[in-house]
Amino acid sequence: MNRKPYPTDLSDEQWQLLAVMLPPPFLVGRKRQVALREIVNAMLYLKRAGCAWRLLPHQFPAWQTVYYYFRRWRDAAWFVKLNDELRTQVRIIEERKPDPSAAIIDSQSVKTTEQGGAKGYDAGKKVNGRKRHILVDTIGLLIIVRVLAANMQDRDAAKILLAEIKGRMPRLFLIWADGGYRGKLIAWVATNCLWLLEIVKRNDDLTGFHVLPRRWVVERTLAWLSRNRRLAKDYERTCESAEAWVYISMIDLMLKRLRPCKT
To answer: Which among 247, 208, 211, 223 has a CA at the least distance from the CA of 77?
Structure first.
């Protein structure tokens, strides 16, 4: 790396951990001529700075090259695989089981731009855009994210989210949620997933801000994501790209936990 480093760059220790998890090059065709470490550094810069692809600084590889790898890894679900592997490692060093037995679900409404793609109006939050529906474990690490139009009810989106994760979490049996998930969804989760969906209710007798049991964990994860300017709004044309940036954000966070930067 013959350039002045950016604060978002991976350290040597973080890169050594990540490098062995990345997909291998193709066995046929032209040999890879770009350093994957710089590709990853460019994605982390885009995530934190929030700039457009064409505004990527010239010290990085060409934006077309970085986008090629982003699209290729997104379509092959490599960001999902990296998130799952790093989450397991973080849980182990936290002296927990590799797979969670409990989780928390929530959503976050964000505005979109003129890029197009799926979007809708969330009448509750008064936001015209999309919703990020996330499921996290009890320490706030991402299990799955789905980005859908904001006019979809949380209960309907939860069915999509939970049906997909059902076969990937063998130990999961309890999910906490807020009042937006009450109603018929509780019975649907019990029947179709064999899990317990528990609604954490707000105490109406209390005024002002109060930390709610379990629900604060997923709210903290959403706050972690919001530190990245790329996620301040949904700038993506497709929901799949929007989901990829959420996974990239959590991958970066977990790398920093596993290999903290030396001060």
So the answer is: 247
How far is residue 261's CA from residue 172's CA, in Å, rounded to a whole number?
A: 33
Q: Phi-psi category of 77—alpha, beta or left, where left has phi over 0 and alpha has psi -120 to 50?
A: left
All domains in the chain, ordered by first residue? 99-234 (3.30.420.10)
What pLDDT does 192 receive?
94
State the pLDDT at residue 23: 87
Please check whether residue 173 is in contact with residue 166, taking contact to mean a CB–CB distance below 8 angstroms: no
Give the separation between CA 226 and CA 1, rounded to whole angstroms: 29
Diameter over CA atoms, the chain = 67
Strands 127-137 and 120-122: antiparallel
Closest by Cα among 191, 157, 190 to 174: 190
Distances (CA, A) of 51 to 48, 72, 73: 9, 20, 20
Instruction: Output the pLDDT for position 256.
Output: 96
State which residues of the chain have pLDDT below 70. Answer: 1, 203-212, 263
Q: Are 110 and 233 in contact (CB under 8 A)?
A: yes
**What's this model's pTM, rounded to 2 decimal places?**
0.94
The rounded distance, in Å, linking the Cα atoms of 185 and 162 is: 11
Under 8 Å between Cβ of 232 and 46: no
User: What pLDDT, on the 0 to 100 scale, is given for residue 73?
Assistant: 96
pLDDT of residue 97: 95
